[in-house]
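Figure 6 in text form: structure in, sequence out.
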């Protein structure tokens, strides 16, 4: 085992795993689960690559319905691996998709005095971005109804507007939902990003110009549900 792998094993065992258990997850090796009777709500830690000098890892999240045999304790069924979606999941995301960067995010561990910084940063990412969204998805699935509102556009239907956001280097819209008379757009945006504000102003104006009587205003929130802008 290389020094980097030894440090990763130490970081996982003594820092990351205890921190995630403190957040309410249970762990089985490098997969952590939110206890739920009907679903597998998982946070998976996956090594991306490693050599003798450094190791890089990332985090995947997934939500899947348990089959009847598992729910009724008739036959144990293994959940799908969170980093290898097979199409049976209700939802799957890489941690970077839930963060302001909206991109692939990996943490690197290498021998040295600051190797633990990467582990602590990944714990913070799960706490502030990954776990809130996983809990929201689980609550919605458990209730059998949308958790934050009626879905307005599906991810596929958002492709066109998200392509325009990508051109402007603005994070994509992750969800478009109706909450009363408000259309709520959620994405990995920041109030301090003037480009995102300008582009989303145009997006909101376009939605409002469509004349859909179900909403009269558009609210943009970040991935933690905090309101950023109201149009």
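Output sequence:
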């Amino acid at each position: 085992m290389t020094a980097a792998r030894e440090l990763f094993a130490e970081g996982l065992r003594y820092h990351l795993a205890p921190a995630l258990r403190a957040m309410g997850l249970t762990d089985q090796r490098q997969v952590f689960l939110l206890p739920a009777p009907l679903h597998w709500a998982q946070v998976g830690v996956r090594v991306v690559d490693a050599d003798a000098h450094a190791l890089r890892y990332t985090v995947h999240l997934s939500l899947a319905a348990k089959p009847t045999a598992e729910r009724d304790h008739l036959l144990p069924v293994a959940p799908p691996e969170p980093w290898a979606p097979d199409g049976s999941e209700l939802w799957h995301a890489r941690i970077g998709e839930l963060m302001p960067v909206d991109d692939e995010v990996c943490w690197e561990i290498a021998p040295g005095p600051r190797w633990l910084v990467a582990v602590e940063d990944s714990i913070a990412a799960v706490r502030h971005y990954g776990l809130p969204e996983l809990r929201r998805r689980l609550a919605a699935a458990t209730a059998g109804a949308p958790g934050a509102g009626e879905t307005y556009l599906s991810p596929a239907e958002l492709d066109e507007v998200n392509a325009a956001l990508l051109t402007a280097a603005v994070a994509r819209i992750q969800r478009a939902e109706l909450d009363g008379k408000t259309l709520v757009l959620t994405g990995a945006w920041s109030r301090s990003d003037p480009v995102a504000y300008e582009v989303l102003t145009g997006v909101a104006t376009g939605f409002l110009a469509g004349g859909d009587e179900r909403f009269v205003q558009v609210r943009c929130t970040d991935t933690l549900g905090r309101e950023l802008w109201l149009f």
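Caption detail: The chain has five helices and eleven strands.
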